[in-house]
Automatic annotation (TrEMBL):
Record keyword tRNA-binding present: no
Source taxonomy: unclassified sequences, metagenomes, ecological metagenomes
SUPFAM superfamilies, per the entry: 6-phosphogluconate dehydrogenase C-terminal domain-like (SSF48179), NAD(P)-binding Rossmann-fold domains (SSF51735)
Claim: Oxidoreductase is one of the keywords in the record: yes
Gene Ontology biological process: fatty acid beta-oxidation
3-hydroxyacyl-CoA dehydrogenase NAD binding domain segment(s): 5-181
Official protein name in the record: Unannotated protein
Gene Ontology MF, one: 3-hydroxybutyryl-CoA dehydrogenase activity
Length: 373
């Protein structure tokens, strides 16, 4: 099995980014979207990204033109008939993805592999919409796809091991770090990231800290590129709520139920940067959040960090993902300066366990307890 032509369905920022990844690597790419307007937007997204790279000296104009020449666009799924691999990058709505995969199953040649770029939804349910579930896989790129090096490859109980192996080989050839995992809501990165973000808003809802205090704490004390409320606004609060609903439906844990503060903002139409406001108002340029209250910043940093590190320890203990893949996912997928197990090594596991136990006792939340030896 070899790959020569790649298809991408959905041409938003993520879809256009995936188109660019494969076109840069020398593949012929077919980009398909649901309307002429969406196709034009995809072309524009690709052109802008290549222009940015050229302006920074990362591409010559000749290279940019060659990449563009490898890509064709259209609205008809039949254009994907001869693709060896088709990656769906539509919005995170299960019913929409199921509908797309049913259409892809009918349009793409029988030997073609179908992949979903879902960040949290059930790959199994998506695969079951086809007559070839053994050839359906998750291939979760991170945004922006041409830049971010981490990709989660998600197999289901139906997945053909040979198909999984070929996708891993393909991803490695793109210069990506691949984590090969099974189908669980949120996978590695979003399961850990969204619980951390949800915890932050739960602290905010309880009045224990302001958004500025939390964001400043994680920036200043852990060196994160942005704090939790800033990151929620960047990702899209509505997107985070939907991912949390998927995770909560699986775990049934109260800590995974979307925090009230997020839900109310979404209901008010304040979904983050894309709507102009969320936790922050983006009508004017904002400086990085700061706050002089060191005691509150230290406390909220401790609480967020201990809960997050505990989640990472628990994920590795189940065998779902290795320490290396978890560290790589959080660094390469989220831009964190250190992976959680690197942080644990620097702090000391006994101090982390003690911190977890103290947090669980103080909050009364059993999920924060350290795992028994």
């Amino acid at each position: 099995m070899s790959f020569s032509q790649i298809g991408v369905v959905g041409l938003g920022i993520m879809g256009a980014g995936i188109v660019e990844v494969f076109a840069r690597a020398g593949y012929q790419v077919v980009g398909v979207a649901e309307s002429a307007a969406a196709v034009d937007a995809g072309k524009s997204n690709l052109a802008k990204s290549l222009a940015r790279a050229a302006s920074k000296g990362k591409l010559s104009q000749e290279q940019s033109d060659e990449i563009t020449a490898r890509v064709s666009f259209g609205e008809d799924f039949e254009l994907l008939a001869d693709c060896d691999l088709v990656i769906e990058a539509a919005p995170e709505i299960l019913s929409l993805k199921v509908e797309i995969f049913s259409k892809l199953d009918a349009a793409v040649k029988p030997s073609g592999i179908l992949a979903t770029n879902t960040s949290s939804l059930s790959v199994t349910e998506i695969a079951n919409a086809t007559t070839r579930p053994e050839k359906v896989i998750g291939m979760h790129f991170f945004n922006p796809a041409p830049v971010q090096k981490f990709v989660e490859v998600i197999s289901t109980a139906h997945s053909d091991a040979h198909v999984v192996g070929k996708i891993v080989e393909l991803g490695n050839s793109l210069g990506k770090h691949l984590a090969q995992i099974s189908d669980q809501p949120g996978f590695i990165v979003n399961k850990l990231l969204l619980r951390y973000l949800n915890h932050a808003v739960q602290i905010l809802d309880a009045g224990q800290a302001t958004k500025e205090q939390m964001d400043a704490a994680m920036r200043e004390l852990s060196g994160y590129p942005m704090g939790p409320c800033e990151l929620l606004d960047l990702i899209g609060i509505d997107t985070c709520v939907e991912i949390l609903k998927t995770i909560h439906a699986d775990t049934k844990l109260e800590i995974d139920e979307p925090a009230a503060g997020m839900v109310s903002l979404v209901s008010a139409g304040a979904k983050g940067r894309k709507t102009g406001s969320g936790f922050y108002d983006y009508s004017e340029r904002l400086d990085a959040p700061t706050d002089p209250n060191e005691a509150i910043k230290n406390q909220v940093h401790n609480d967020l960090l201990m809960a997050y590190l505990g989640d990472c320890i628990a994920m590795e203990a189940t065998g779902y993902a290795s320490k290396t893949d978890i560290d790589s996912g959080m660094k390469l997928g989220c831009g964190l300066p250190k992976g959680p197990f690197e942080v644990i090594e620097s702090i000391g596991i006994e101090k982390v366990r003690a911190g977890q136990a103290e947090l669980a006792q103080r909050t009364g939340i059993a999920a924060y307890q350290p795992l028994p030896f």
